[in-house]
Model the fold of this input.
Amino acid sequence: MPHCHATSNDPVLLDLHSVCRCLYLGFVDVEWSVGDTAVERAVDSLIPETILESVTCDQLGAESPVQYTECQLQVSPQEGILLTDLNRKIFFQRHLSSPSIVFVGVDPRDKM
Done:
């Protein structure tokens, strides 16, 4: 996962065009939660164990509780976030528009 911690109002996220690689673990609706609480809730629903290792997921294959894929993550102030599945394992591309992004963060517990 990319190591960034910013709200959608943070100039670091909005003013820069950024590209990085990350692991896509899934999409979770966190309802009205925001901040670290939302990230923790999403990670807990995607990773049922206390710590996840990619070796475990790879060994279990389709039986793994987590299906992940390596993605390219592009951030643009006008366009939002574009995820491209580099292996086309789960999807080809997913787009999240800027108005739909409330918070961007990394699990503070470093569960992955």
The chain has one domain: 6-104. The radius of gyration is 14 Å. The chain is about 20% helix and 25% strand. Residues 6-104 form one domain.
